[in-house]
Each structure stands twice: as structure tokens, then as C-alpha cells.
Write a structure and sequence with these properties.
This protein is of the alpha+beta class. The protein is built from 1 helix and 3 strands, in the order βββα. Strand 1 and strand 2 form a beta hairpin.
């Protein structure tokens, strides 16, 4: 589940809460105030290094290798059953 950060306007408490996307924190867990607002979180992405291969490249390579193995297996089984 995603983690959300809220700030209470009354007591200035910062709250980190884990809940589903559709849920929302309504009251401060410290003082009970309803003056609570969600703090937008920043999402950070790391770019792949020029030295390292990206994950997508590795996944595509694994998929292509698996497809080749499946083709070889299909040909082997067809040859095995020829009269």
C-alpha cells in the first residue's frame, strides 16, 4: 500500500500513514483536529547509468531468449512424433 504524509494545521504534527488510494485521513491522531491536509510527495526516478544495462533491456533479452527456447522445444516435439 502507498504511504501518505499529512500535516495537522492545529498542532503542526507531521503524520505518515499507509492506506489505500481511495482512503483518506480525516482527523489528526495526536490532537483530534479535522484541520489536516495531505502534503504532496515528490517522486524521484534514477536514470540508468551508461555503464549498467537498464532493467527493461534485461527483461526484453530474457523474453527473447525464452521465446527461442520455446520454438526449439516445439520443433523437437514435432520431430519426436513423426512416423
Amino acid at each position: 500500500m502507498p504511504r501518505y504524509t499529512y500535516k495537522c494545521a492545529s498542532c503542526q504534527e507531521i503524520l505518515e500513514v499507509t492506506h489505500s488510494f481511495n482512503d483518506r485521513l480525516d482527523t489528526c491522531t495526536k490532537c483530534g483536529s479535522e484541520q489536516i491536509s495531505m502534503i504532496p510527495s515528490m517522486v524521484m526516478f534514477n536514470r540508468p547509468s551508461t555503464v549498467k544495462k537498464s532493467v527493461g533491456t534485461e527483461v526484453k533479452k530474457a523474453i527473447n531468449e525464452t521465446k527461442e527456447e520455446i520454438k526449439k522445444d516445439k520443433n523437437r516435439t514435432r520431430e519426436d512424433y513423426k512416423p
